[in-house]
Amino acid sequence: MRFWEAGATYFLARKIGTAVVGLGSIGPVHAKWYSEIPESKLVAVCDVREKIVKEVAAKYNVRAYTDYHELLEDREIEAVTICPPNFLHAPIAIDAAKKGKHIAVEKPLCLNLGEADRMIDAVKKSGVYDQYLENLCFAPSYSLAKEIIDKGGLGNVYYCKARESGDIVKGSKREERTVEKGWQLDPKKSGGGMLMDTGIHAVQYVRYIFDKAPALRVHAEIIDSIGMRKPKGIEDAAFVTIRFRGNKVGIVDTSLYATGGGCDDTAEIYGDRGTVYLDLYRRNPIRVHSHAGYSMLAHSMFNSSPGDDRGWSYPIPEEHYALGYFHEQRHFLQSIIANRRPQVNLEDGRAALEIVLAAYKSHETGESVSLPLS
Predict the structure, then answer these.
(1) I want to staple 189 with a disulfide (CB 3.0 to 4.6 A). Which of 87, 89, 254, 356 is the partner?
(2) Using one digit for the tens of pLDDT, what is the confidence trace for 139-198?
(3) What is the mean pLDDT of residues 47-56?
(4) 3-135+325-343 maps to which CATH number?
(5) Nearest by Cα to 28 from 67, 87, 84, 72
(6) Is the pLDDT of residue 294 over 80?
(7) Order of strands, sheet of 102-106, starting from the edge strand that comes earlier in the sequence
């Protein structure tokens, strides 16, 4: 059964009071779906930027907070989605759990394994439910692939390659805007570059395909500053090989400069009796070539720029559904109503983070790194 189908019998059993902390690129997506998911009553949003939080709050007619501590005192809020800058994930999640709020945390879970363990410990002590927000595990096409595997369609699955990359052109205006970002370019606040920010999606998807088999060994090759120069520790590309228990191998491929028409999210899964090819963004039955443009920014809500609707583009019908955000959030709320832990939780976020940290260590030493990390 796909994760987002679990708990269907609890449909509309009751509404959960929800809130979103952090209104950067992904926070407004979570707020939108919390305003529409049947099991959700969006109560409040929070961001330190007063203008932005007031705009989002007004859009959904909900309360606006600029201090998350005040939001956590709101008794109507039962569940909080946490998506501020990476270095704030752990303190906010721990504080929310201590206040008895169920928590859903965006990727990456946090910056290090010590933080991850404290987050998990806070959840266990408080008795709340926890979800690690990985949309690929809930995207309909990607979860259908897992269902096919679970039904034996590929036989013994031994290899999964997952790729998630950006489409930055060296010297472009988009590159300038990307490099101008603040906390993302500070490794003490972001934790890393493309592997921590984007490749970690692919890491978790490989784990999902392999039924969360323990990772045994990691080797990585990382490339810095393909385009504009960035601070040390903010890589532009990473290519990671992961050996899993059960004679399985995963490959993760991520790059900021993988030009070719927008976000690139693909996977290949091989078994001894079958193969699955996945393309999240270009699987759709519509391809457009336009010299004039058509008032849409590329084929995705992410990383779009004016002019992306000229030339080839790949519009995604009902993109938010197709990418899995609606389904992952609904699974979180249905799990709370059903009184059970979400199937993708902070333990998964910790495991994905450990693989990424092992990849960085492999790059530094030039050697494969065994897991678990000491």
Answers:
(1) 87
(2) 999 999 999 999 999 999 999 999 998 888 888 887 887 777 689 999 999 999 999 999
(3) 98
(4) 3.40.50.720
(5) 84
(6) no
(7) 63-65, 40-46, 16-21, 79-82, 102-106, 130-133
Q: Return the amino acid letter for 372.
A: P
Give Dmax (Cα) for the chain: 58
Burial of 374 (0-12, 13-18, 19+ CB in 10 A): exposed
DSSP state of 84: S
User: CA separation (Å) from 272 to 239, 245, 276, 350, 353?
Assistant: 25, 17, 12, 30, 29
Residue in 121, 118, 122 with CA at minimum distance from that of residue 96:
122
Q: Do domains 3-135+325-343 and 140-279+355-369 have the same CATH topology?
A: no
Asked whether 126 and 100 are in contact (CB, 8 A), the reply is: yes
Domain 140-279+355-369 has CATH 3.10.20.540: no
Q: What is the pLDDT of residue 295?
A: 63
- Using alpha carbons only, give the angle 135, 137, 140 rounded to the nearest 5 degrees: 85
Domain boundaries, the chain: 3-135+325-343, 140-279+355-369
Confidence label for 298 from pLDDT (cuts 50, 70 and 90): very low
The proportion of the chain whose per-residue pLDDT surpasses 70, expressed as a percent, equals 90
Can you give the pTM of this predicted structure?
0.91
Cα–Cα dist 297/301, whole Å: 7
Burial of 306 (0-12, 13-18, 19+ CB in 10 A): exposed
Which whole number is the average pLDDT over 344-368?
Answer: 98
| Backbone φ, ψ for residue 6 (5° rounding) | -60, 140
53 sits in the region (left: phi over 0; alpha: psi -120 to 50; else beta) called alpha
Neighbours of 170 (CB within 10 A): 12
Structure confidence at residue 290 as a pLDDT band (50, 70, 90): confident
